[in-house]
Amino acid sequence: MACRENPGDVIASTTVPASTLTPAPATRGDDGVAPAPACSTEDYKIEIPPPAAADDAPFVDRLVRIVNEVYLEAEVGIWRDGFQRTSAAEVAEMIRAGELAVAYLVNGNSRSSSISNKSDTNDDKDSNMARSQPQPQPQPIGCVCIKKLPVGEDAGEEKGEFGMLALDAAHRGGGLGRAMVRFAEDRCRGRGLATVQLELLFPTAFEHAFKARLQRWYARMGYAEVRLGSFADDFPCLAPLLAGPCEYRIFEKRLV
Predict the structure, then answer these.
(1) Which among 97, 111, 139, 174 is placed 20 to 30 Å from 155, CA to CA?
(2) pTM of the model
(3) What is the pLDDT of residues 171-205, one digit of tens each?
């Protein structure tokens, strides 16, 4: 994968924050982790925004803030101080490429107001100008990057991949994290990909509670560790920003 010049422009599949996906325990399962409560599909929607949304600065900036705040909490101790998980340029690039799914709140006050396509004046010029204004996106509450892995020279079947799964703190614990993973899986399956992959960083100098919970969370959904990768080889510009040594664990799940 290409190394980006800006350390904030991080590849979208480096890791997935545990705090996004694991709700506060209520009734614990056999592994000591509580399952997420059910979340009604009437409460939210998950979709791929149109490429034009990449030019909506408030929309992009809110996604950047959600992702960076989640990773600041969930990857504490893994990166050097000041590290930022993503940037506006990277998020806009993902949107233009159709690689970013966004979760929106359907019921409630989190949706931003729309710009009307109609004008109150009879002046044709003003009316045309009003209709030409881009429709603002509803206020997002989370996102996940979904892409097809490039096929290497010695690769077998094509695989999908997802990462940068983040959810606003006010909307965690209702099952939306699971729904976003299912959306990513369905999108990969719809593209004819039989396997989906994700990667997680685990510090080796100490036990990271969020990462341990996250690995159990993924295991319950059918993800199994298949190998250790080389983070320095895949992301040579990011490896120096790690606060200490880490394992780069790769997980897979068969979709068919």
Answers:
(1) 97
(2) 0.74
(3) 888 899 999 999 999 999 999 999 999 999 999 99
